[in-house]
Amino acid sequence: MHSGCASELDCPGCYLRGVIVPQLEERFAHAGYWVLDAADYGVPQHRRRVILWAGPAPLQPPAPTHGPPGQGDLFRRLEPYATPDWWDRPAPTVTAQEVKGTRASEASGGTFNGGPDRASDALYLATGRRRLTVEECAALQSFPPDHPWRGTKRSKYMQVGNAVPPPLARVVAQRVLEADASLQ
Q1: Separation between Cα atoms, residue 155 and residue 46, nearest integer Å
Q2: Are 34 and 28 in contact (CB under 8 A)?
Q3: Where are the domains of the chain?
Q4: How many CA atoms lie within 13 A of 115 on its CB side?
Q5: If pLDDT is split at 50, 70 and 90, which confidence band does 122 have?
Q6: Which of 170, 174, 176 is nearest to 53 (CA)?
Q7: pLDDT tens digits for 13-60?
Q8: pTM of the model
Q9: pLDDT-derived band of residue 120, with 50, 70 and 90 as boundaries?
Q10: What is the 3-class SS of 47-79, one letter each residue?
């Protein structure tokens, strides 16, 4: 637990370390978790994901394959007229709330409460566009253009916003396969 937390229920990290991982350790020889940023594995946005793992062998987190500068050429992919100062930065996280568009507008002077923290906010600052499409959000996640999203527009935004980007899933799966092969 963090020093300011009275119980495991006070914060998500405390619950993870104090309840979930110990319960996994009761059932498996090894258990743990990693917090990985998809931008470190070639995805053109910052997207932190908690990866829980448990099994017969310990796992080490995958080494990053990408790093600054130029790790996320978001605006080269989306808009040819974007300003160059945005080109070599990963985008903020695509969220399930992208369906709502940006919180900035001409009426607000292009400002945000606390700064741009969604991909649509960053796109607005760079290009003046109001909202990313489902397809653009999926591209930022590194999904192929023909990925079969299903349902309403809101449902598609939710699917994209809650997804683990394929490059991140790939390096995690590779780490699990390597651990499995070492047991053979």
Answers
A1: 22
A2: no
A3: 1-67, 74-161
A4: 3
A5: low
A6: 176
A7: 888 888 999 999 999 999 999 999 998 998 888 888 999 999 998 899
A8: 0.69
A9: low
A10: CEEEEEEEECCCCCCCCCCCCCCCCCCHHHHHC
The single-letter DSSP state of residue 22 is: H
H or E, element range at 48: strand 48-55
* Whether residue 166 has pLDDT greater than 80: yes
Give the pair of three-digit tokens for residue 110. 């292009």
Block residue for tokens 């590779």: 174
Give the pLDDT band (50/70/90) at residue 82: very low
Burial class of residue 90 in the structure, from the number of CB atoms within 10 Å of its CB (0-12 exposed, 13-18 middle, 19+ buried) = buried
Cβ atoms within 10 Å of 169's Cβ, excluding its own: 16
Place of tokens 């006070």: 10
Return all residues near 131 (Cβ < 8 A) that are at least 6 apart: 98, 99, 100, 101, 102, 120
Which DSSP state fits 45?
Answer: B
Q: Look at residues 99, 69, 94, 74 and name the one whose alpha carbon lies nearest to residue 86.
A: 74
